[in-house]
Every structure is written in C-alpha cells, then in structure tokens.
Write a structure and sequence with these properties.
This protein is mainly alpha-helical. It has a single domain, classed as UbiA prenyltransferase (Tetracycline Repressor, domain 2, Orthogonal Bundle), CATH 1.10.357. Helix content is about 70%, strand content about 0%. The radius of gyration is 19 Å and the shape is globular. It is found in: Cell inner membrane; Membrane.
Length: about 300
C-alpha cells in the first residue's frame, strides 16, 4: 500500500532551477530560496502596502523597485544566515534535509562568501534611500543574524522573525515621509502578530523534529492550545490593521478588505489541524492572499 504520509521536503526537483540554471548556480539559488518565493512575497507585500499608505496612493517607480529588491535581498540574506547556523540541525529535519549546505552541495566557506556578496548587493540600495531609512536598515542587520539563534534559547523565535521580516514597512514610511507615525507603527505591529500566527502554523510542520533536536518554537510553546493562540494573534492583526485606517482617514473600501482578511483568517483557523503537517504547510502558503488583500485594501482606501 502506498504511504499517505505527505512529503514535507521543501525542495522540489525538476523545477525551473534544475531545468534552466547552470549546475554550479543551483545550490546558491536554493540556499537563498529563489526556488521558494513564498517568503519573499510575505516580506514584500506588507512593504508594498506600507509604501501605498505612506504615499497615500501609488509609490514612485524608483521607490517601488528599490524596496522590491530590498525585500528579495534581505529575505535571501536571512535564509543564508539561517542555513549556516542550522546546518547541523537541518539534516535531521524532514523538511530541510536536502538543503544545499546540510546535504554537502556547497561548503561552509562557499556559503559565507555568498553571504558577503548578498550583503554587499543589499548595501548598494542604501544609496537610493534617505538617511533616516539607512539607519533603520542598519538596525535591521543584527535582527537578521540573531533570529536563527533564537530557537536555541526561546520559544518565541517567530516574534524576532516577525519584527525583522516586516521592518521594511517602517522604512517605507521613513523614506516616503521622513517620519514613522503611530499609525505606521500599529500597522507594523499588526504584521508582526500576523507573522507570529502564520509562522506558528508553519512551525507545527517541524514540531516533532524540533522537539527531538532540542530546538524551540511557538508551536512547542502552544502545543495543543495552538488554535486558541492563533485566534488571538489573528484577531490582534485585524484590530492593529483596522485602527490605522481610521487614523489615516482611509476610504470605506479599505474596511471591506479588512473584512475579507478577517474571513480569510477564519477559514485558516477553521481548517487548521495540529496533527496534519501537510495542511499546516498549505495554510502557511495561503497567507500570500492575506498580503494581497492588504495591498488591495491599501490601494482602495487611498485612491478611492
């Protein structure tokens, strides 16, 4: 009888990386997750929403390009740092066992040199943002390096990840208006609680492996109480994204999309199953729609 156990390996062979990139490039593309763009979208979409809100309309093309590249590069940097730090753990985790560094496709020295090149490319973007935003960008770097270590000593690595992943929202405001008002901070806090929620769902995929390895996560902190915690984080997200709409004077369409986000969260919570890692993986990816709804709501609330 065929096994019904889902394949949680996060690398798909015979994909575009395998088909179109030179063999020597493939491990680096997978190291920085170019083949798995979900994390990039989850970083970028809230940032685009913040650019729209700060501009009160469509951002300039240059600013949009700079922040898109920034999201791509810093997410890639975060992935490389994570794999360097976790190279001795990943081989024991079903989802990560075939990643390039832990499987020996590249060496630690090669990964570090690649990381330096990524940081250098990200640093070039500093020339295209204002001084306020540059300082915020510099403040982000330690968080990117601290996050992979958090799972060794705290059950809340998802909090650190949420702070770092959504930092671009604050920079979108600082670069557009040279200020970070209360409404922007509340929106960012909402993105942090949103990320704690969806990354907790993701963490349930690895919970058994993490427990055996002595690693920590919010999934291991919440265990069977996960649904109650997720309700709290998603409810906080809706509130923290709705209140700034009033503070910024957004139009009625923004609140329609907030309702749509609330319904999407309800669907996630209704279908969430702690005992089903495959479903947790799918629900994590479904949060791209949350980001899309936030962008659409920001456009509707500011342009109409």
């Amino acid at each position: 009888m065929a096994s019904t156990h889902p394949d949680l390996n996060d690398i798909r062979h015979n994909d575009w990386v395998e088909q179109y990139l030179p063999a020597s490039w493939r491990p680096y593309a997978r190291l920085c997750r170019l083949d798995r763009p979900v994390g990039t979208w989850l970083t970028l979409l809230p940032c685009i929403a913040a650019l729209i809100q700060a501009q009160y309309g469509l951002p300039t093309l240059l600013r949009l390009v700079v922040f898109c590249l920034g999201a791509l590069l810093m997410r890639s940097v975060g992935c490389t740092v994570n794999d360097i730090c976790d190279r001795n753990f990943d081989k024991h985790v079903e989802r990560t066992r075939f990643r390039p560094l832990t499987s020996g496709q590249i060496t630690l020295k090669q990964a570090i040199l690649f990381l330096v090149a990524q940081l250098a490319m990200a640093a070039l973007l500093l020339f295209f943002i204002n001084s306020y935003s540059r300082w915020l960008a510099v403040a982000l770097v330690p968080l990117v390096f601290i996050y992979p270590l958090c799972k060794r000593f705290t059950y809340w690595p998802q909090l650190v990840l949420g702070i770092a992943f959504n930092w671009g929202m604050l920079m979108a405001w600082s670069d557009t208006t040279n200020s970070v008002p209360l409404a922007a901070v509340l929106m960012w806090m909402g993105a942090v609680t949103w990320q704690i929620g969806y990354d907790t769902i993701y963490a349930y995929t690895d919970m058994k492996d993490d427990e055996q390895l002595g690693l920590r996560s919010t999934a291991l902190r919440f265990r069977d109480q996960g649904l109650a915690w997720l309700i709290g984080f998603y409810a906080a997200t809706v509130v923290l994204w709705t209140v700034p709409g009033f503070l910024l004077g957004f139009g009625w369409l923004y609140y329609v999309f907030m309702l749509a986000i609330a319904l999407h969260f309800y669907w996630q919570l209704a279908t969430f199953d702690i005992q089903n890692p495959g479903r947790s993986f799918a629900l994590f990816r479904a949060n791209i729609w949350t980001g899309c709804l936030l962008v659409a709501g920001s456009l509707g609330g500011t342009l109409l």
